[in-house]
Design brief:
Layout: H1 29-42, H2 46-59
Helix pairs in contact: 1-2
Length: 69
Amino acid sequence: MRKEYDFSAARKNPYASQLKKQITIRLDEEAIDYFKSISEEVGIPYQSLINLYLRDCAASHRKLNLNWK
């Protein structure tokens, strides 16, 4: 291992803007249990499934029907 490293020719990570941001979100237990049950079936962490679902909604510009009867 070197004592010193030269980073003068280093460049910024081009994928840094695509990294995930940690937030706090409140979800009801039914929603969490739903994604946890799916995660056990497919072998993907439930947080990743929630992220994939939300990304799919955003990509397809899906909106909720918020009309109250």
